[in-house]
Design a protein that fits this description.
Oligomer: heterotrimer
Radius of gyration of chain B: 19 Å
Strand content of chain C: 15-25%
Shape of chain B: globular
Helix content of chain B: over 70%
Chains: A mainly alpha, B mainly alpha, C alpha/beta
Largest sheet of chain C: 7 strands, mixed
Distance between the termini of chain B: 54 Å
Helix content of chain C: 40-55%
Order of helices and strands of chain C: HEHEHEHEHEHEHEHEHEHEHHHEEEE
Order of helices and strands of chain B: HHHHEEHHHHHHH
Distance between the termini of chain C: 84 Å
Strand content of chain B: under 5%
Largest sheet of chain B: 2 strands, antiparallel
Structural class of chain B: mainly alpha
């Protein structure tokens, strides 16, 4: 690859990383916490994008993968005294394995049926969590706030010589993982695997006849995207300090799909805008009007309008800007 | 034995409601290839229109019913022409997001106008109950199943034997070629949306007398309707009905006789069964397997 | 081409970032006891303004209307009360975020009247660790009173669900000594608490629960459960549900040709407008004779037509919540809670602190809450963290509730 082609993304990335590092000094601790959630959604969106944007398999169930990651973390912290940071990779790997295993029977389903199957899983997840009450705490959920293994919830933590309160700690934790995950995804999608994914998306039969193993790449896509969702879920549990079946409702899965489409399928850059969008849309809608039902109307109308104005999502907007500056 | 039969009867009752909404989902998918996530909310809105006519404006049942159906048809066509059509050229996900936006907006609209209070909707059928061998069967349920079956027959006749039905099928399966032979594809798609909206309205009007009306009337039913449609085959109206009834009865029997399932795992249990069915026959019981052209 | 592209992209990213930052600039607030100035008190409330539980939004609305009324009369100790209500859509994760916003960004003095059992559980640890009062949590879960040693800043208000079930169970034990009871209950802490209370109340009698059918809050209908309960041969039916499913229970019992000798139902599910819907225009006879408990004045009860407190209630609603449904008893609950809050704040004095408020609520003895039934008091003390433990039985007869008997108090014996 020519030097100049990867120079632009790298510079942009460094600028982003710099911005992320420096932002907390300019904003309130509360805003930092909100931006931490943006990072969490970004991680989940990166994963979903690998599956839906790059490999063309629609999932309406990524909230369920987040739930698996979130509960893994919560149970490990609350019942087994594992430090929260170490639960993150465990949650990611566990969820990734589950996703991979789900990908195997999912090979038989395509398009609409896969979407409905994942939808079914997301709808069922809260009920399943409630059923295994002894393990998951049932409807009352698991509380993490104030537990010794939850970093910084009660007393600030010192990192690299700086003292961080809970909100700032969450911010840096989530964004560091998000940026690392971003790079990993970028490397994965640039190479052979990414090309294979895209081949599967564009035409399964063509891909097969060029020697791309459908089962291998489809299940791999599921595994990778589930792992990302598991990590996001784990951070979600840590940030919310509470999990219960209703913290991972079907609305979350739908929200993630919205985020990926609004961000821009098949592109990593737009996903940041997608994550910001899904985090702040409910908040902005409430600012417009608090009458019962009005925020939902605002959110719905904004979504529809967005599909008209930015049919390719924010990534499409960036692509248009790019072509403009090329002249 | 009477208990078992009672659960079956009750299952048919619930199942016919799932089937009625599933019919709307099937129709829209068959006519336009789209999964409409807002189908339930549109049905809820239709039911509220009927409610407000009968309760706040003193209309009697059948005129209100007719007006609601017409309004729903117009609404369905309008939504397709205004909001869906411009997005049809893009990826299927664009339309999905638009229907999600519609879901949110319509649910919010209903809450804003009518608040979250529970309302009663009159039923076209008498609410008497007859008893056969210790099993209570309500006339309401017989009526509901009757309407659902009649709807299926009408749909089938329309698709098989009328020019409009043929045109709709052509527009859905191969729009380009359909245009070549003079089918006005866009209007066929709009017609599909309009008819699906009508079916949704009927579904709401059948369900509301029993389960009562609030903004979330259809939200709970939607997943069951999807499950029924997928089980029966997403393009088959007969499949939607069979799927709905099987689902309704199956859920009840599972919940009643399988202790492990209990209350919480009723729906997940049913969904699992459907997933298994899909793995064995990916296009559902009555579905046709897709042949892909390279 | 390449340097220009690089430049353009970097510029774009930075511009977006700066724009985003500017939009988000916020300030932190720090103070000894936030939310209190010489002229105002800031409270925070989370409420399901939209979503599946939006019927309960009336609780927050009623309270807000009452605060406005009090403010128009000068407020409390010279301070006007402002209650910021945030929609959490009944999702505990949203409750956590909204609560943190109210505490950290808005700097509320206390969280008040937050609705929902799981929702209150989700924020309890956070609030107590930060010593922010969780005042009069709108949930009857026993945990909010029984775990006060661990969570001193948290207090509920309404009779606990267990107490409710207990009173109903005791009534049943006294009047139908050997009854067989079938119970329909929501499959969560709410329903289970009620069921446990019922069983405890029935303990010293021959009455037994012969069938208990749970249902999920998301279930579209409860037909199957009702069929199963009917087949148990029970003579008494207990319905522990939320409004929609309670109505369905009555309707399906009727459809199944089942008329239990006695039907018991809990307070939330038995507001008059709900019972009227269940009676299906008078055709459903199952509702006749239902017994429930009540501790608030029901706006549709003809008994209170000329009652001074209910006249006040109506005038407050007309002035400050004109578009709301005045017959909705949840508004009355909200006002009862707000009245109690005003009394507590008044007693906590001019020098208002969070710990001071908690001291007041831990040893309350208020009588004369106009929205509660006469004789029902608000009392807490060492070992008793449940403000309202008294209730009155009522029977549904010919289209309205009629209270009977005296005041029942909950004893843990």
């Amino acid at each position: 690859m020519s030097r100049a082609r990867w120079l632009a993304p790298v510079v942009a990335f460094v600028a982003l990383a710099f911005l992320v590092a420096v932002l907390p000094s300019f904003i309130s601790a509360f805003r930092a916490q909100q931006l931490a959630y943006v990072a969490i959604y970004l991680i989940a969106l990166i994963g979903l994008n690998v599956l839906t944007g790059y490999t063309g398999q629609i999932s309406l169930g990524h909230g369920a993968f987040m739930a698996i990651g979130g509960y893994t973390t919560a149970i490990l912290i609350a019942d087994h005294g594992v430090k929260d940071i170490w639960t993150i990779p465990i949650a990611g790997i566990l969820t990734g394995v589950v996703g991979f295993l789900f990908g195997i029977p999912a090979l038989r389903l395509s398009g609409l049926y896969l979407a409905l199957a994942t939808f079914a899983i997301a709808v069922s997840m809260p009920a399943v969590i409630k059923r295994f009450e002894g393990f998951t705490g049932g409807g009352s959920g698991i509380n993490l706030f104030g537990l010794p293994d939850l970093t910084a919830s009660l007393t600030p933590v010192t990192v690299l010589g700086r003292e961080l309160t809970f909100n700032d700690w969450l911010y840096y934790l989530c964004w560091t993982i998000a940026l690392v995950g971003y790079v990993v995804a970028w490397l994965l999608l640039r190479g052979r695997t990414g090309r294979a994914f895209r081949a599967v998306r564009d035409s399964e039969t063509a891909a097969q006849s060029s020697g791309v193993s459908l089962p291998k790449y489809k299940t791999l896509a599921f595994g990778v995207s589930a792992a990302y969702a598991g990590v996001a879920g784990s951070l979600f549990a840590i940030a919310t300090t509470f999990v219960n079946p209703d913290t991972f409702p079907i609305a979350l899965s739908i929200l993630l799909l919205v985020g990926v489409v609004v961000g821009g399928l098949g592109s990593l850059v737009g996903l940041i805008a997608g994550a910001v969008f899904i985090q702040f849309l409910p908040i902005w809608s409430q600012e417009v009007s608090k009458s019962p039902g009005a925020p939902a109307i605002v959110s719905g109308v904004v979504l529809i309008a967005l599909m008209f104005v930015l049919p390719m999502g924010f990534a499409g907007l960036l692509a248009r800007v790019r072509t403009l500056t090329k002249r | 034995m009477a208990d078992f039969m009672q659960q079956v009867v009750v299952g048919l009752s619930s199942g016919s409601i799932y089937a009625s909404l599933a019919l709307a989902l099937v129709l829209i998918h068959r006519a336009t290839g789209v999964i409409n996530f807002a189908q339930g909310e549109m049905a809820t809105l239709s039911t509220y229109i009927a409610w407000t006519l009968t309760t706040n404006h003193g209309w009697s049942y059948w005129p209100a019913f007719a007006f609601t159906l017409i309004a729903s048809f117009v609404g369905g066509v309008a939504i397709h022409q205004g909001v869906i059509r411009p997005n049809e050229k893009g990826s299927v996900l664009r339309v999905v997001i638009v229907t999600i936006g519609l879901l949110l907006a319509i649910n919010g609209l209903v809450t804003l106008i009518w608040s979250g209070e529970v309302r009663a909707v009159p039923s076209p059928f008498p609410t008497r109950t007859i008893e056969i061998g210790g099993v209570a069967i309500s006339i309401q349920d017989i009526g509901t199943i009757g309407v659902v079956l009649a709807t299926v027959v009408v749909l089938w006749l329309m698709f098989q034997y009328t020019k409009v039905g043929l045109a709709m099928r052509a527009a859905a399966v191969n729009p380009a070629e359909a245009r070549l032979v003079g089918v006005r594809v866009t209007w066929m798609l709009s017609l599909g949306w309009g008819l699906a909206a009508v079916l949704g309205a009927i579904s709401g009007m059948l369900a509301a007398p029993s389960v009562f009306l609030d903004p979330n009337l259809m939200a709970a039913l939607l997943i069951y309707a999807f499950a029924a449609a997928v089980l029966g085959g997403i393009d088959s109206p007969i499949g939607a009905v069979v799927g709905g009834l099987v689902l309704g009865v199956g859920l009840n029997l599972l919940g009643t006789y399988v202790d492990f399932v209990g209350a919480d795992l009723r729906l997940p249990g049913a969904l699992l069964v459907i997933l298994v069915v899909l793995l064995v026959k990916p296009s559902g019981i009555f579905g046709k397997t897709e042949v892909k052209r390279v | 081409m390449k340097p220009k592209l690089t430049f353009a992209l970097t510029a774009l990213v930075l511009t977006l970032a700066i724009g985003v930052t500017a939009a988000f600039a916020g300030t932190t607030r720090s103070s000894a006891d936030p939310g209190v100035t010489s002229t105002s008190i800031l409270l925070g409330t989370t409420s399901p303004l939209s979503g599946v539980a939006s019927a309960y939004a009336s609780v927050a609305r009623g309270a807000d209307a009452y605060f406005k009324y009090v403010n128009a009369r000068g407020g409390v100790n010279g301070r006007k009360i402002s209650d910021t209500i945030v929609d959490d859509q009944y999702n505990p994760q949203q409750t956590v975020l909204a609560t943190r916003k109210l505490v950290e960004q808005d700097g509320v003095f206390a969280m008040f009247n937050t609705l929902g059992t799981e929702q209150n559980l989700a924020i309890r640890d956070y609030l107590n660790a930060n010593k922010v009062p969780q005042l009069f949590a709108a949930s009857g879960a026993t945990a909010f009173g029984s775990e006060s040693a661990k969570y001193p800043y948290t207090i509920g208000l309404q009779p606990s669900y267990q107490a409710e079930g207990w009173v109903l169970g005791k009534y049943l034990a006294r009047t139908q000594g050997s009854a067989k009871v079938a119970v329909l209950f929501q499959n969560d802490d709410y329903g289970k608490d009620l069921l446990n209370g019922l069983k405890k109340g029935m303990q010293r009698s021959k009455a037994r629960v012969v069938a208990a059918e749970p249902f999920e809050a998301t279930a579209p209908d409860v037909q199957s459960q009702m069929a199963k309960l009917r087949s148990s041969g029970a003579s008494t039916l207990a319905i522990f549900a939320t409004p929609k499913h309670a109505i369905q229970a009555y309707v399906f019992a009727n459809r199944l040709n089942w008329k239990p000798k006695l039907t018991l139902t809990n307070a939330v599910a038995s507001a008059s407008n709900i019972m009227l819907l269940a009676s299906e225009g008078g055709k459903n006879k199952v509702v006749e004779g239902s017994v429930s408990i009540v501790f608030l004045k029901d706006p549709t009860d003809p008994k209170w037509k000329n009652d001074a407190a209910m006249k006040l209630y109506r005038s407050i609603m007309k002035r400050y919540a004109a578009s709301a449904n005045v017959d909705d008893v949840y508004h009355v609950y909200g006002m009862a809670a707000a009245w109690t809050a005003v009394e507590a704040l008044r007693k906590a004095g001019k020098n208002l602190t969070r710990s001071g408020l908690v001291k007041v609520t831990s040893s309350m003895n208020f009588s004369g809450n106009p929205f509660l039934l006469p004789g029902i008091g608000l009392k807490t003390g060492p070992g008793d963290h449940f403000p309202i433990e008294q209730m009155v039985l009522q029977r549904w007869h010919k289209g309205s509730w009629k209270s009977f008997g005296g005041i029942w108090g909950y004893r843990t014996a």
